[in-house]
What does this fold into?
Amino acid sequence: MNRLLVLLASFAVISCVKLPPNFKKCNRNEPTWTECVLEAGRDGIPQLNRRYEELNLPNIEPFTLPEVSISGGRGTSVVTQTYKKSKISGLTKIKVDKLEFDFANKMFEVVGVVPELEMMGPYKLDGKILLLPVQGEGDSVARLKNVKVELLMKYEEVKKKGKTHMKYVSGKAKIQPGSVFFRFENLFNGDKILGEQINTVINENWKVFYEDMEETFEEVVMQIVINMVNKFFAKVSIEEAFD
It folds into this structure.
């Protein structure tokens, strides 16, 4: 019986988590709501560079991505790409230009610019770019500079113990880099001359190569963000966050 009481008490505490004091709170009924929530976002997002145990939020600097596969391609770039245990960093450095909650339509929108997004980890490539063969397996890095990020997400309302929580169910992301630098080690089984040539070709034609991975990369970023906000709003209700 004592063990049961402890479990019930623990559940009650977990289900009533309050907004951490270091996160700015805004009242959606106040006339300064729009300005307040933008300021709160600008202040809060950089703080996601550490773990918040009480909210079940991991540290997303860097965020580890188990595996991403990109098949086929189009036009002059037809490359099958696989990335495993990649680390993505830079998301919390976003300079937020727009952050809005549309409670009537249950939408959440974020627009901003990330100075640099970096993805590092093991890769495998096989295909052609500009009719040149590309093949290799090893370590890779991709650095996206001055990245314009647009996120639009839709949520549903879920009732828990008399409180209303957001559950994000879908979203769309647009990731537009100003430039991208790629580096693939061990191309063609370590042939340094061919490897340097192909790395040069890829970087001289980065837009072509990035177009191949753009849709998948956008989906990855969208899933990272949806996962984060769902963990947060599963613990913090709308009433606690915005009233």
Remarks:
- Helices lie at 2-15, 33-44, 192-204, 206-235, 238-242.
- Residues 1-16 have pLDDT under 50 and may be disordered.
- The first helix runs from residue 2 to 15.
- The beta strands are 63-70, 73-74, 77-89, 95-102, 107-129, 132-160, 163-176, 179-184.
